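Appendix B. Chain record.
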Amino acid sequence: MLNTKNNNFYNILFSNNKIINHKDKAEKNISEELLTVRTLVLCRPFERMPEEMEQLEKILIACKLQKEAYKVDQNPNSWSFYRKFENIKEILLFGISEKDLNLNISFTENQINRFDNRVFIKTTSLAGILNSQQIKNDLWQNALKIHFLS
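Structure tokens predicted for this chain:
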């Protein structure tokens, strides 16, 4: 009898059924959107909603990125989730650390960093960019302009 219960339990957990194979709708939507973009923008939830959103839009426009070419994610997953999307070539990190992505490496801020056959550009949060013209200049001159406009 115990073996029958164990077999039933095993069949429920590991069979091809909706309990195991069903993806959360939000994760499924994110996954589908990631199939078509080249640039992934990871940032913290906006502290100053309109100002930070406008700043991000200005940065992306200056980089000549079309809306269909990038995806903004304010609740980042680990890098292991994103790395399976081979179409993603650039990752912009605004206030997101390597630790947030479960990476045990260190990127230089406001520079082009190459890792896992992709370009990572890490900087401070969008709120920090709004508060510092120097950070904005460094990000543009040392990374974004070189990568996106050269």
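Further analysis of this model is presented in Appendix C.
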